[in-house]
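Lecture notes, part 5. Sequence design as translation. It can be helpful to think of inverse folding as translation between two languages: the language of shapes and the language of residues. The source text, in structure tokens, appears below.
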């Protein structure tokens, strides 16, 4: 699963800046990076990230809703498919392509359906609605082998609470990158989150 189960979500990033931001994330210790498909020219950004970091980091796409989008992302050489929802056809095609599947889930029904379809991990979204209390309750019934990610409302401040509730990892969006942020801005935020994760996970 890579060094740390932290996924950077670069919503709104542009192809011209994505390389420097990706490198800044990698140097800070975040080695999973996804570009949501509702960003400007997302496939071009993903192609550039794969070219620059593909041999060192796990690069992929977020907000993947359809099988056609899975096909398009697979053609870039990316290895990760992240969705806000749970679509078994998307999960199965992702796995057939040899890629990592992290679908969005909220309920026990969605969790088990995602696992049945072969998902590699469960993205609890929106995390700030489920909260550590909700995650802890769901983890009581999930297989112990299920990998759980909290996404939405995660920050350096609440990472310890999530880890205590049993979260394995995190998807980090606006707490890590907002459109207009420089690579240096992202590096500073990434270092703070990595430090909080390492402290909580140790």
């Amino acid at each position: 699963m890579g060094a740390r189960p932290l996924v950077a979500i670069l919503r709104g990033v542009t192809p011209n800046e994505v390389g420097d931001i990706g490198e800044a994330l990698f140097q800070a210790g975040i080695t999973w990076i996804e570009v949501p498909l509702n960003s400007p020219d997302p496939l071009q950004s993903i192609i550039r990230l794969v070219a620059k970091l593909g041999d060192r980091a796990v690069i992929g796409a977020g907000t993947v809703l359809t099988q056609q989008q899975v096909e398009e992302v697979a053609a870039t050489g990316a290895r990760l498919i992240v969705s806000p929802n749970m679509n078994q056809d998307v999960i199965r095609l992702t796995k057939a392509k040899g890629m990592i599947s992290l679908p969005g889930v909220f309920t026990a029904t969605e969790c088990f359906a995602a696992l049945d379809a072969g998902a590699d991990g469960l993205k609890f979204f929106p995390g700030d609605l489920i909260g550590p209390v909700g995650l802890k309750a769901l983890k009581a019934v999930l297989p112990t082998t299920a990998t759980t990610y909290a996404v939405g409302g995660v920050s350096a401040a609440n990472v310890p609470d999530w880890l205590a509730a049993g979260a394995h990892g995190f998807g980090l969006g606006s707490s890590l990158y907002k459109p207009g942020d420089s690579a240096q801005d992202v590096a500073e935020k990434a270092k703070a989150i990595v430090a909080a994760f390492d402290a909580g996970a140790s």
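The translated text above is only one of many valid answers, since several sequences can fold into similar shapes. The chain has one domain: 6-201.
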